[in-house]
Specification:
- The protein is mainly alpha-helical.
- It has a domain of 66 residues.
- 60% of the residues lie in helices and 0% in strands.
- Helix 1 packs antiparallel against helix 2.
- The protein is elongated.
């Protein structure tokens, strides 16, 4: 086998490895995109449910969000609904929304515990 034949064989091997790397990268990207899309449909379902339960939201909007999740599952397979832990850089969910404790009611005679 001549020198040029060896170079050609190595080049062909490099092309095959590069194609495999591209295919692996594409598969990881598609998995990532599917996960993001699943998160989005579940987030919308959560918003619709919260609005329905706490803010007078419409049952029709909730049903539409459920249909969207069902369609996503039909097209992409089951969704991982395992709760995720937040990273240290992310604030805990709803931490800013927790109201401070209300002031204590006045003691009989109008004297507050702090006045003592």
């Amino acid at each position: 086998m001549g020198f040029m034949d060896k170079v050609k064989a190595q080049a062909e091997q490099a092309v095959v490895k590069a194609q495999q790397g591209v295919a692996q990268g594409q598969a990881k990207f598609e998995t990532y995109q599917a996960s993001r899309n699943a998160d989005a449909v579940l987030r919308e379902l959560g918003r619709a449910y919260y609005a329905y339960q706490r803010a007078g939201g419409s049952a029709d909007v909730l049903d539409a969000a459920l249909r969207t999740v069902d369609e996503f599952v039909t097209a992409n397979g089951p969704i991982d609904t395992t709760p995720r832990e937040t990273s240290p850089s992310e604030p805990p969910p709803a931490a800013a929304a927790v109201p401070a404790d209300p002031p204590a009611p006045a003691a009989p005679g109008g004297v507050q515990p702090d006045d003592l």
